[in-house]
Amino acid sequence: MTAIPRRTRRTERPTPVLPTLPDDFAVRVIAWQQRYGRHHLPWQNTGDAYRTWLSEIMLQQTQVSAVLGYYARFIERFPTVQALAAAPADDVMAAWAGLGYYTRARNLHRCAQIVVAEHGGVFPRDPDVLTTLPGIGRSTAAAIAAFSYGVRAAILDGNVKRVFARAFGIDGFPGDKPVEETMWRIAEAVLPPAGGIQPYTQGLMDLGATVCTRGRPACLTGERACPLESLCEARRTDRVMELPLPRPRKAVPERAATVMMALHDHAVLLHRRPQRGIWGGLWSLPLVGDMDDALNAHPKDAATVRDAAQTYGTVGAVEPAGELTHTFTHFRLHMHLLRVDMTEPAALEDDWRWVSLTQLGTVGLPAPVKLALETLLQPSLV
DNA sequence: AATTCGGGGTG
DNA sequence: CACCCAGAATT
């Protein structure tokens, strides 16, 4: 009888090797935070899980400086989760316009309604329950639970990934699955006891934002002390500026769109974008033929634009009005602008409306569309 | 596991 | 211009 070699499962992966972790990591972070960390951000220590949640959603992929104004306006306009849940979706989108990642705003609204309808208006304290809510992933759930309720849970955001990559000498791009898994294990392993979770979590964020920064880390500029310097692997091996490894680069696709600016009686025609896709749910200038691959899409000619515009009224003059290029994270958009004068507007379907030029500020407009309008109109009107 | 979602800050 | 930011949802 010949022995049959046991087949190794193809899904089997080597257990990620964890670096040796110091036992005083959290102690260092907490002590540093209490003395040198940020203590006066408007969403800190409010004792209000609603405010913690709102700030965490706004801060996803968005810097503190960009969030401050939006947060203040949101709290004023929607002071409670009940107020937000009861608000029209359009109002929420308008308040979010300009912050980007508009799926966050739709999820925010849905989440508020679920919290009110199914949780009595109180945010859950269990991270696993929080994760089931729209817009809340593993890291955001941990941040909400830790800040609002003192629950011992690990975050892992861009700041923390950078601190870990340097402190523990983690090679590889942190967005890669295996690297990210390793970092989650580290994050769980270095957690302090529950009593210190708030200053610890805040301290990790503050370290990444003010000391262990991407461009000018304090250990190299000497501007301030880093509590991790004596244990930092990147510092020891002189690799601070190398870590974490950057995202592998790809060519940025080029796309083009013909943008119609139809005017009638000091009002402009706007169209609400579909919920899915770019600028989902936001009002925009109509795009004739939407966005096309720039290689085979040339600007639509005046006759095509006139044809498209006739759906919305009687068309007068059609004139080219310049070109704008906007770079997104994942593609570059060339916008060809055409101005259309409408002499007699027709009845409009849902998701279409004429907006007075003086009212444009009250509508949620994506930044490039706002820029196009500013280019075509007097800046004071937008 | 890889892609899709923005706008703005920073070097 | 390149790269990143208190990431999550989708495919």
What does this structure look like?
- 38% of the residues lie in helices and 16% in strands.
- The chain is elongated, with a radius of gyration of 25 Å.
- It has helices spanning 25-36, 49-58, 64-77, 81-86, 89-96, 103-118, 127-130, 138-149, 158-167, 177-189, 197-210, 218-221, 233-236, 302-309, 367-376, and strands spanning 254-264, 267-272, 283-284, 287-293, 313-327, 332-345, 352-356.
- It is α+β, with helices and mostly antiparallel strands.
- Strand 5 (313-327) and strand 6 (332-345) form a beta hairpin.
- Strands 1, 2, 3, 4, 5, 6 and 7 form a 7-stranded mixed beta sheet that branches.
- The relative contact order is 0.10.
Question: What is the topological layout?
Answer:
Blueprint: H1 25-36, H2 49-58, H3 64-77, H4 81-86, H5 89-96, H6 103-118, H7 127-130, H8 138-149, H9 158-167, H10 177-189, H11 197-210, H12 218-221, H13 233-236, E1 254-264, E2 267-272, E3 283-284, E4 287-293, H14 302-309, E5 313-327, E6 332-345, E7 352-356, H15 367-376
This protein binds a DNA duplex (11 and 11 nucleotides) through residues 55-67, 98-104, 107, 134-140, 143, 155-160, 162, 175-177, 201, 204-205, 208-209, 213-216, 246-247, 249, 277-280, 327-330, 366-368.
GO molecular function: purine-specific mismatch base pair DNA N-glycosylase activity
Catalytic activity: Hydrolyzes free adenine bases from 7,8-dihydro-8-oxoguanine:adenine mismatched double-stranded DNA, leaving an apurinic site
Cofactor: [4Fe-4S] cluster
